Amino acid sequence: MRGREVGMTAEGTAQPGGLAFPAGPPTPVWEVITGYTRYWLVVAALDLGVFEELAGGPRRLGELADATGVAAGRLAVVLDYLVSVGLLTTTGDRCFALTPAARGYLLRDAPLSMVEMVRHSPGPRTAWPELSATLRRGRPTRSVEDDAGLFYGRLAAASAPTQQAVARATAALLPDPGPGALVLDLGAGAAPWAIGMLLAWPRARALAVDLPTIIPFAEAAAAEHGVADRLDVLPGSYLDAVLPIGEAAVVTIGHVIGLQSADLAKALLLRARGALRPGGFVVISDYFRPAEPPTARDLEGSLPQSMALTILANTNEAEVIELPTLLSWLAEVGLVPWTTRQLLPGQLVVVATEPGQAPPP
Question: What's the whole-model pTM score?
Fold first, then answer.
């Protein structure tokens, strides 16, 4: 018996001869399922070198099959899927090319490369199958904090290209701090904030503070970007290292404000304020949960929720806080917001200072 042609209206009701979906088509559920396969699709494409093979220009399916060592029929499934998600383009003769997004973010030498972010941002792969148990227990079986140097070091290096760009854009908002001005980078990681500001301010100097196992990432990055002579390092915790008092033109706190309890977060902000020279700025960059919960589908707006869930899945105490919470902590330590900008999707940069500073131009 031949089946009848299935059709759906835009409202999700059945056309004549089609299936009826009283709840509307199951598109949101399929998006969840295919989200998992899309992630591993991109990881596999990176592992196979698909994007790098296309860096020089379009290539045919057979050429890519030879270059990657994958049978053409199997590789075609990968390439067609990459086309459907907007990372490759193709012509009718099975010739493939990079889209601007793939060229901008999925090549290793791209200025804003996110190749390593794809690999490391979700955290250890073992954390996700046990998420329901982690939520009930309140902590994962194994936290990334158990080997903080290894995980945060890799993540810091992975996020450095995009965070350095955000740092340079933030520096452009601030007044030039003058010759010899100090940028103090707390929880520096690979020091993208310190390095970005040193590149924006050629007469400034920086001090990067982080755990001894992570500081080598900052030193390597400083050498790579030609600022090693202006960046000093201080191995140790940003919560108890001996910091300069009243010297810093800018103190940066990038993606670490939620990595400890509220009391320790406020202690960190108090230390940052104590390090400021008169008229200095504290720059906090992070993901913040919206004060009002979402009321509709919003994939870009879901980035903070995604980050919040990733942190719950992988850490013991860290959390993604709400922006009003941060603002209340700033007020407690005597700082006021100077400007707040979204320079990357989902990520906010909050610049705070002492009361009385002129607003940004």
Answer: 0.82
